[in-house]
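Hi Y.,

Following your request, here is the sequence exactly as I used it, all 309 residues.
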Amino acid sequence: MGFNRNFESPEFLIKDTIPLGYTGYYFTGVHENHIFLGHKSAPAHILRYDLKTKDTIHLNFNIDRRQFPNFDPDKLKLAIQYPNTYFVDGSNGIFIKGNLINKNINETNELEWRFDNYIQIDSNTIAFRTYDMHKQQNMLAAIDSIGKAINIYHPKKQQDGIFDTDGRLFQKNNYLIYLLYYRNEFLVFDNTLKLQYAGKTIDTISTAQIDISTFDKTLTISSPPLRVNKNLFVNDSKLYVESIIKSNNQSLKQFQQQVTIDVYNLKYGKYLHSFYLPKINRKRPVEYTIHKDKLMAIYDKNLVIFTGY
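Below is the corresponding structure, written out as tokens. Let me know if you'd prefer a different format.
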């Protein structure tokens, strides 16, 4: 059974394109007129872009690897809540807090937890995804600064509990959202990981279409799964979901040449409307954010700022 989308929003036009020089950048924080980007291959490097002056500044922290012999820079995730900067290697439970003004490391900690999808909620609370060995499935958790669990949540298991519950954790304002990749579901929590409701995206794929096989006691995907949701971002009380499922009232050309964004009321989970963003050089955005009424996206090696929002 298919579905239709309601396209109401005007077309978004490109206002500015800022060359970044490399792929691998991601949004890591905002403050006043500044947008901060981290880089997957340069964990101690921060790029700051000024929306007003259009200047870019490169900032670098000195993280002493000798202090953390198990530190894996390839697994590091950066988060900024100005002026605090957080460097976290979830694969080894390493937590490093710095100051963006003086670029000093102020606090270090090693947690017993092992995790990914790290989110810095505030200076004393983080959320992430981990693996529950007892239930043999993915689990979401919010913990305090000493590693004590505040709340945990297990996404509904349909097959294996790993691939079928795969998704992305995102936080903004007073909302934590976990978007499922392979089924039409998103979970909305408060900042302590208390579930507010389970929402449904507009498509009709309620069961993850994944073929799972086991080899040498390891679960693997035996054929390419059907991906439903690709990415998300939040502004005010609206949730924006990048969908890769075509609706009945979209032509194949429209769907293939542009990026489809579905908008939901975040308070109730109700679908509102959809709009298109362009592909640039046939590539989709890899990251999105909205700040000061500006919609921004990272395409390949460029930061793109749109008008029309």
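The domain at 13-307 is CATH 2.120.10.30 (Neuraminidase).

Thanks again,
Q.
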